[in-house]
Amino acid sequence: MMNHLAIVGGGIAGLASAYYAHKKAASLDIPLKISLLEADSYWGGKIITKRVNGFVIEGGPDTFIVTKPWGVQLCKDLGISHRLKGTNPHQKNTYILHNNKLLPLPDGLFMMIPTNIASMLRTGLLSWSAKLRMGMDFFIPPMSEIGEESMGDFVTRRLGRQAYERMVEPLMSGIYAGDGDKLSLQATFPYLRDLEIKHGGLVKGALAARRSRAANGRKPAPGSRSLFLTLKTGLAEIVEALVAELEDAQVDLSLNTPVVDIRQENEGYTLLLQDGQEINTFGLILAVPSYTAGDLVAELTPNLAQELKAIEYVTTATVSLAFRKEDLVRPLDGYGYVIPRKEGRLALACTWTSTKFPHRAPEENVLLRVFIGRAGQEAHIDWDEAELLSIARNELRLTLGISAEPLQTHVFLWEKAMPQYNVGHVSRLSRIESELDNLPGLALAGNGYTGIGIPDCIHSGELAVERILKKDTRTVLFTN
Ligand SMILES: Cc1cc2nc3c(=O)[nH]c(=O)nc-3n(C[C@H](O)[C@H](O)[C@H](O)COP(=O)(O)OP(=O)(O)OC[C@H]3O[C@@H](n4cnc5c(N)ncnc54)[C@H](O)[C@@H]3O)c2cc1C
Prior knowledge:
The protein is α+β, with helices and mostly antiparallel strands. The chain has helices spanning 12-28, 70-77, 117-122, 128-135, 151-159, 161-176, 185-188, 190-199, 202-216, 236-248, 290-296, 302-309, 353-356, 385-400, 425-437, 454-468, 473-479, and strands at 4-8, 33-37, 49-52, 55-58, 64-65, 84-86, 94-98, 101-104, 109-110, 113-114, 228-231, 252-254, 259-265, 268-273, 278-281, 283-286, 313-324, 336-338, 347-351, 365-372, 408-419, 442-444. It is built from 17 helices and 22 strands. Helix 1 (12-28) packs parallel to helix 16 (454-468), helix 5 (151-159) packs antiparallel against helix 6 (161-176) and helix 12 runs antiparallel to helix 15 (425-437). The radius of gyration is 23 Å and the shape is globular. The protein starts with a strand and ends with a helix. The structure holds flavin-adenine dinucleotide (FAD). Flavin-adenine dinucleotide is lined by residues 8-14, 37-40, 45-47, 60-64, 258-259, 287-289, 292, 316, 318, 414, 417-418, 446-447, 452-454, 457.
């Protein structure tokens, strides 16, 4: 059917693609049939919220950043922005584990870079020689053209190795579960390189950026001045609102429908489903992990498949545990803590969920969430539920002294879930782009390419739609 657009993958990127495809087709007056095909038995992919006895438990993401506008914009479009909630403004500490003790993150970090010299001088996180080394950032000239550089090399070059290992690496790992010595600076935090080039140093650049942001008086997102937002009863609210909109728009929504192969036929694509059915489309958005997209296009375009399958993904898990308040040994006076790779723990971070978002647990209880797994450590973990729970409980015992039996626990395993934008990712993306130029009507969306956060994934869906539905699409469809 030549006016048929298929989207494979019903995570946030696929759902957003379907939503924007419907809007765009309506604005271009194209009578488009849209199908969204999801292999699993639920919508949302990594976004999964359990609501149990007054607890709101997130299995995957638990919040999204407001500085990338596409998350807030989608919530506005869906009419749910009044349900957005910020993080707790009264207990904002974040801690870093250092030699098995929790030390507060120094004040004044802006985009992970220090801007408060007094607080850097006071912190026990770094030695005096490391603090001196950080100060050298004011004098080291920016490196001229260097191509892609690892995050670890870049921060070490500017601020010194200790500042990287004890401060920047754990913060960055919390986002990518990655190995900073492999992650590409240009693909993950390109603005840090921009600060170096534009201002001659990282600290000078971060100070200037902070001043300019303050002077511009950035408008707070609806209902909050928080940098991170969530929905009152969990991020699944976005998924639920999207599915309701798509049902109203008569988008063809199919769960339990894995796509197993794709062929190019009659200037369009034929999708082969696991149950043997075929779907013919003029346009196709692959909103699945890049290794799955690679498998699907392996016959159609081996070069593209190879590039897609070369993007590494890391397996991680989250374990949420609820306790009584009286089970605590120390107050949960912050959002939680991150664990530097150097500390040698299997856990990556622990969020003090009921402090960060007080509405997520009943008054008399606390909810904690332990992140497990990071690049290079997968072989050290068995990844079964009992082992993950035991790692989480051990982490809480060692660091927070909690040995009480939890009231409830929820383990979520995310196999090959976190894409690693390693050095070479930017050039790989341009090769992928050139391959796609030979495949009209095909687009990619999702976390494997230009951003792993929810707003980026939403935006990737919007861009995939823009790529396929253009002004001349109507002419193409009706002359075929
Ligand atoms: C533990 C964890 C915590 C995170 N925390 C945050 C956070 O706090 N904030 C934030 O912004 N981001 C966070 N992220 C990242 C973010 O959640 C993800 O990058 C994002 O949700 C990915 O969305 P997606 O649509 O690209 O992919 P997915 O959600 O992976 O969706 C892809 C979908 O494709 C389906 N699929 C696969 N193969 C096929 C096939 N052959 N046929 C049909 N369907 C198929 C899958 O079943 C899946 O539903 C976190 C991620 C994890 C794992």
